[in-house]
Amino acid sequence: NRNRDMSIVVACAVLVRDNLTCAYCHDKLVVKGKNAATLDHIIPRSKGGRAIPTNLVVSCALCNRKKRADLSDYKSIFRAIEWAHRPIDMTKGRELAVTHYPSRMKPRGRKRVEAIA
Questions:
Q1: At CA 91, angle to CA 111 and CA 97, rounded to 5?
Q2: 3 Cβ contact partners less than 8 Å away, ≥ 6 residues apart
Q3: How much is the CA Rg of the chain, to the nearest whole Å?
Q4: pLDDT per residue over 68-114, tens digit each?
Q5: Given its phi and psi angles, is residue 20 left (phi above 0), alpha (psi -120 to 50 degrees) or beta?
């Protein structure tokens, strides 16, 4: 599934890394609801971009659509590339994922196997 080609923890870690702020217009966003943050692929997947943290930035829906239509704003794209190369914190990403996306979290550790007597 195209929507699930990355871990929810990685996606949330990118949201935390960018402080829920649009990389292009610098508006403050939220995780869910109105004015929700989206993840933007700097190099689009249609052009071979991968769903990895260094190719992802937080974007508002308006800037995401605007970037898709007009790639001539190189200054904001270069700024987004700088943002994307900051380190991510997987622990904080996991905390955000557990809080907002519990149904998409996979159980950690080994499954318990009970002996049959």
A1: 70
A2: none
A3: 16
A4: 656 556 777 777 888 888 898 888 988 988 888 887 776 665 555 56
A5: left
